[in-house]
Amino acid sequence: MPPLLTFVARSSDGLPLVANTAPDFSQGVTQEHKNQAKDILRGLGGTAGASAKLSIDTTNNLIFHYLVRDTLVHLTLTERSYPKRLAFLYLDEIADAFLESLVNDHGESGWRTALATTARPYAFIKFDLIIQRRRKDFVDPTSRQNTTKLNEDLADIQSIMRKNINEVLDRGEKLENVGNISSNLVKESKKFKWGAKKLTWQAMVNQYGPVVAAGVFVVFVLYMKFFW
To answer: N or C, which end of the chain is more exposed by having fewer CB within 10 Å?
Structure first.
């Protein structure tokens, strides 16, 4: 069963810009679910510029998934058995398509202003047709197309994480979107290096300390014997 309900809203105040319900599978979607979706969008107000993914359990074995990106919240409702990663891939495609539509209509420098000044709910309802086309691609999670998407998504995540961490270690950059992981890595690395230096120094003292002490004692005895 495909994503049952899809919203795109402004993240600053939760204003819904477009909404779509899967017509052939809408019997499981109630007015309560639609109200819950609007409550979630309003509750995310003030997250503009943030990057977030979250799943929220609801009734009737259904679950909400939302993605915050580019000052927009993209939210969908699926069955609990629907693969979570595939749901977020669906939201990623919706986010890409919606942003592309905004840029085409308002230009690279004007789409943010168009979003910020929109006062009427569902002002971008024409995007509903694009949601319908994208949703058809996600009807069957076991299809070859979606299986390929899941496999490619896993590979991309692995390569991106590896690239980001390497950049942090090589250039001292920070990954704010993953809780300053890079900063912690650098701090732990410094602690480890200091600990290693300390152990090396202690080992040298243990190895050469007695020899140095004996030499100092001999010099002291000779000095006392011949020059005192």
So the answer is: C
